[in-house]
Specification:
The protein is an all-alpha fold and about 290 residues long. It has one domain. It contains nine helices and two strands, in the order ββααααααααα. It has a two-stranded antiparallel sheet. It is globular.
Amino acid sequence: MQRSYAGCDHVRCASAPTGGHALPGLDQHVHFALLLTLFTGLSTGIGSLLGLLNRSFNPRLLALSLSFSAGVMIQVSFLEIFPKARTALSAVLGVRAGYLWTTIAFFAGIALMAALDQVLPSHGDAPLLGLHPSQSASAEERSTLLRMGLFSALAIAIHNFPEGLATFMAAVSNPRFGFSIAMAIAIHNIPEGLAISAPVHYATGNRALAFWLSFASGLAEPLGALLGYVLLRSVLTPLVMGVVFGSVGGVMVYICLDELLPAAQRYGTHHQMIAGVIAGMVVMSTSLLFLA
């Protein structure tokens, strides 16, 4: 007899609560989930295009968009992902142990992102949005900017792997909030595209190189989702699903606190950032209420 587990909505689980078998229903939303991660990855290229083709820049709108995305992701992490992970693990391990391992998985996700930040160079927030290659710069300055752009592309590409996995797992479990997470991460990826293309364009004067470099870094997102699917497909029991979901929640919260909110405050004011976060939480809560 098949049984459906909380923590994997819309996924039919053929295993017993011991978590000894994989989830054969995992394929149900895989194509949609992969398309979502492709969309989020392509938004890095969109950010690059906006920077290369547009000379106008509205920092207030970007600040509100980033903080709104953070509000959506924080609300989804604590209202949807963490409870689903806890319920799935509690069904296998018991209530107390399930809560304990959900918490451990959550902070393990945060620790993973923190470790990546320590070993990778900072990719910044595209401080060169108003600069153009026609402006005078020494060879040393151009070399420094090119190096900054290349390191930004590397750092963002590696960061995109867990982001792609987070979007993919959310969409496989529940396309409704998977779509919400994808939209939030897509907005977050736009300034990352700018962070790559701006210094490369300014250093080389080559728009094509700046665009394709940022575009390639964004493709790490669907690659991370695909790799995670291939590796986890055969072992994705309710136990593993719960651990992965707990970790994904930690990854998303870290992205909000370490990247989205600091960038939003740099581009706007403190109160604009707070307004965006609250708006994102309200919209996400309302959507979850009406679509439940």
